[in-house]
Design brief:
This protein is mostly beta strands. It has 5 helices and 41 strands. Strand 34, helix 5 and strand 35 form a beta-alpha-beta unit.
Length: 544
């Protein structure tokens, strides 16, 4: 299957090379002055190129004002160095609200080293009662779209064999590159630049798409940088699958790599690897206005990604076979994995909805720094997150939680919009786990910057747990470093918290707690580091 996919892409790109026919938009009356509307000239060049067998439509150096243009079969839109397609600021020039559009086409693409600029900021306005951003907020929440229907910069729907390469996409009014129900797509070497105060300015959205390769892209935006979802009723039965994302640099103040929020169709066979995730720079021209929305001292918090990795199913989708590897990130929340139950069908809620599934997830070789909010893996009662493997993990996080926060109880929030700040501050400093089956965390180190009264990790209603070679520093001042409630069939191996200077490494509670094995050679008797309450049955915990 994989070989056939690569062969088809190779034949596609070879066909473009062999049958290429250059068509220059200047020959159709396009004017490179940035003032004269050239929509008709550009569209005529595309149409005639497609009708004559396909080839390249050349956009030479200059700035070309345009409204919506439609790509057609067998046409590559080739933006030369110094060329800019400049979106009109008059909404009457868009039909529908997208600058570059394609529907039901094949063998199409956008290439070259030019720019597509949507002039997005001209379509935004400050809300009448703006507020300084607080915990979990985003600078864009103070801005809104002027138009009732926001527009994508590039929207390709139900297209096959798509190549988008090397171009710069900037100042999108809303989503930047939207691939809706597209198959056999290559996105390589593109640059995305959107202001960090822009509302809904996602970088790349894969909506029910299949066999997509994204590589070597540089994204600077406000909203989700790379997001897989399924929200269009016409394509709910499509599985978003066979997706690879690699070698990217991502800067955002929302989620860097995300599955969700809209998760009606299924997701599987997804890889995200070898990438860097960063916070916005308050002195960068794309972030200056956003920084003004932030309380002083919170720049590093609010301008950084809410989540580096966010995997969600909240509308009934089955998410499986996800592999995330070799990621360096600066993010408020390094990892957020969630099964919820919004039951959303379009914009309506289904009272009889059933949660989806999240399983078979591997996350490895992750370095996360400047974290300020707890990572979490949470399902719902009776609907566990299943079979998650996390290894070679380093997190450097703020800490600073007090005893009151350590005693906080989190509600299930079954219907809530999913994000890592949905509960506010969390009663664990490093990772919070609830309603999970078959979880392994090994070779992990979580280091706190400030003293903290919370447990490093909380495990609640977990069956099948392996913790192997976990480490932390000595800033833990609470009752225990690890807290377990109703945990079954768990192995705790080679974990060394001797630097913590706490008598209790592990605390156990709950009448369902059973079959716990602790092996800690070289650190003294494991029994000396345990605390159990009277709800734990005798013999439930064994030490070696």
């Amino acid at each position: 299957m994989r070989k056939n996919h690569l062969l088809l892409l190779l034949l596609f790109f070879t066909a473009f090379t062999v049958n290429a026919k250059d068509v220059n938009i200047l020959n159709y009356g396009a004017v490179p002055d940035g003032k004269t509307l050239s929509t008709k000239a550009i569209q005529q060049a595309i149409d005639e190129c497609s009708q004559s067998g396909g080839g390249d439509v050349i956009i030479p150096a200059g700035t070309y004002l345009t409204g919506t243009i439609y790509l057609k079969n067998d046409v590559l839109l080739n933006l030369g160095k110094g060329a800019t397609l400049l979106g009109s600021t008059d909404m009457k020039d868009y039909a529908p609200n997208a600058l570059v559009r394609a529907e039901h086409q094949k063998n199409i693409g956008i290439t070259g080293h030019g720019v597509i600029d949507g002039q997005g900021p001209t379509f935004w306005e400050m809300k009448k009662t703006p507020n300084k951003t607080t915990f979990g907020m985003n600078p864009a929440w103070n801005f809104a779209h002027k138009a009732s229907v926001s527009g994508n910069l590039v929207l390709l729907e139900d297209c096959r064999f798509v190549n988008i390469e090397n171009v710069t996409l900037r100042n999108s009014e809303s989503w930047t590159l939207h691939l809706l129900a597209c198959d056999d797509v290559k996105v390589h070497g593109i640059t995305i630049r959107n202001p960090q105060h822009g509302p809904n300015t996602d970088g790349i959205d894969l909506n029910g798409s299949r066999r997509v390769m994204i590589s070597d892209c540089d994204i600077y935006t406000n909203d989700d940088a790379i997001c897989l979802k399924n929200k269009d009723p016409r394509y709910w039965k499509r599985c978003c699958e066979d997706i690879t994302v690699t070698n990217c640099v991502i800067t955002t103040s929302c989620n860097a790599f995300k599955i969700g929020t809209e998760t009606i169709g299924d997701f599987r066979n997804i890889v995200f690897s070898n990438s860097v995730i960063k916070a916005g720079d308050p002195e960068n021209e794309l972030s200056v206005l956003a920084a003004k929305q932030v309380l002083p001292g919170n720049y590093g918090d609010i301008l950084s990604p809410r989540s580096g990795i966010a995997l969600e199913t909240v509308d009934g989708a089955n998410v499986s076979h996800v592999n995330i590897n070799n990621i360096v990130m600066e993010a408020r929340i390094p990892i957020f994995i969630r099964v919820g139950n919004r039951g959303r069908k379009g914009d309506k809620s289904d009272p009889n909805s059933v949660p989806g599934t999240m399983k078979d997830v591997i996350i490895s070789n992750i370095t996360a720094y400047n974290a300020s909010t707890t990572s979490s893996i949470t399902g719902l009662p009776g609907y566990d997150v299943e079979n998650v493997r996390i290894s070679n993990l380093i997190i450097r996080t703020k800490g600073g939680g007090d005893k009151m926060l350590a005693e906080k109880k989190l509600d299930e929030a079954e219907k809530e919009y999913p994000n890592g700040t949905m509960w506010g501050p969390i009663p664990a400093s490093g990772i919070y786990v609830r309603h999970v089956k078959d979880l392994e965390i090994k070779d992990a180190e979580i280091v706190l910057d400030e003293a903290d009264q919370r447990p490093l990790m909380i495990f609640d209603d977990v069956e099948g747990l392996c913790l192997n070679n976990l480490k932390t520093n000595d800033f833990h001042k609470g009752e225990s470093i690890m807290s377990f409630t109703n945990v079954q069939h768990a192995g705790l191996f080679y974990n060394d918290f001797s630097n913590g200077n706490l008598p209790n490494w592990y605390s156990f509670s709950g009448n369902k707690t059973k079959d716990i094995v602790i092996f800690a050679p070289g650190t003294g008797a494991a029994e000396a580091h345990l605390k159990t309450d009277n709800t734990v049955a005798k013999g439930s915990i064994r030490t070696k």
